[in-house]
Amino acid sequence: MASVSTSHLILFIASLLIAASVAGTFTQGVQRLSSALGDRSVDVSSDIRSDITLISDPGSGAVYDASGDGNVTVLAKNTGSRDLEASSDQIEVLVNGRYQTDVSVAVVDGSAWTVGNVVRITIRLGQPLETDSDHRVKIIVNGDEEVLQFRT
């Protein structure tokens, strides 16, 4: 009789040890997941608060300077809820699917790209655009993407 209760006691203690180790592992996993979700929510919050709107009129003829040096000029307004960095290394520009590196940014109505302010983005192309065809300019700022289509 004593051997049965001893074996039950050993099995009970072993099951408690296994349950405690499993609970510890789950607790660590949940803490790591919670930390990762917290970090990601800060990033998403920053992306959500960043928003721009391209306000250039593609029909005005002011987007592409065909008679001059062939620059593309786009006006972008900060319509988000936070100030943005008005520098060319913070803004990604694609023209007709090609990444552009010769980009300059100037704030139009102030000294900083605050909420409601406009920047002029000038893209110096290495070669002129095809005439009588459609073109696309894609501007990416903090994950927010805007596209402007125009015709030369």
From TrEMBL:
One Pfam match: Flagellin_arch-type
UniProt keyword terms in alphabetical order: Cell projection, Cilium, Flagellum
PANTHER family xref list: ARCHAEAL FLAGELLA-RELATED PROTEIN F (PTHR42200:SF2), ARCHAEAL FLAGELLA-RELATED PROTEIN F-RELATED (PTHR42200)
Name of the molecule in the record: Flagellar protein G
Protein species of origin: Halorussus aquaticus
